[in-house]
TrEMBL record:
This is YcxB-like C-terminal domain-containing protein. The lineage of its organism: Bacteria, Pseudomonadati, Pseudomonadota, Gammaproteobacteria, Lysobacterales. The chain crosses the membrane at residues 32-53, 59-80. The keyword Membrane applies. Keywords: Membrane, Transmembrane, Transmembrane helix.
């Protein structure tokens, strides 16, 4: 029997969870990987060319390392900004109709038809909403039977991967 509702009243992600969620979502973005490869290759090229020319000074070293660390640094900065923006807790309520999200200042209701698929990956329950939005909820927030109950609600509504 599928329960009628699962309620997560006080959801707050840690900084480490924000970084991990961004990394998990970013893995599926080819443009980001291309950008990371470009900057890393540029950084490595600066280091290699400078060392071969015998001019590996502090400036060349800094430029090379900055190129290598640029995109991962952007991910960490985005996670920091996301964590800093969490002024209040978020409450999630899963029902047969869909997902209700509320904060101190806003509320939204999303039907299951708006959720394209559901996955568990890296300690997160991930809901893909539309083409480019993924809602990541840490698995630690759910009780022992709640993830199964959420999956049952989603499966009954026809969500892929539930």
């Amino acid at each position: 029997m599928t329960p009628t509702a699962i309620h997560l009243p006080d959801v707050r992600m840690t900084f480490a969870e924000c970084v991990k969620a961004l990394a998990l979502v970013s893995v599926r973005v080819p443009k980001l990987w291309a950008c990371m490869a470009l900057f890393c290759a540029g950084g490595l090229a600066v280091l290699i060319l400078s060392s071969r020319a015998g001019q590996l000074d502090a400036g060349a070293l800094a430029a090379g390392l900055a190129g290598i660390a640029f995109v991962p640094g952007l991910l960490v900065a985005a996670a920091w900004n996301s964590r800093r923006a969490q002024k209040s807790a978020v409450a999630y309520r899963f029902t047969a109709e869909g997902l209700h999200i509320s904060t101190q200042h806003s509320q939204t209701q999303m039907s299951w038809t708006n959720i394209r698929n559901m996955r568990e990956r890296g300690g997160f329950l991930m809901l893909r909403i539309g083409e480019q939005c993924v809602l990541c909820m840490p698995r630690r927030l759910f009780g022992p039977t709640e993830v199964g109950a959420v999956r049952a609600l989603a499966r009954d509504a026809g969500v892929e991967g539930a």
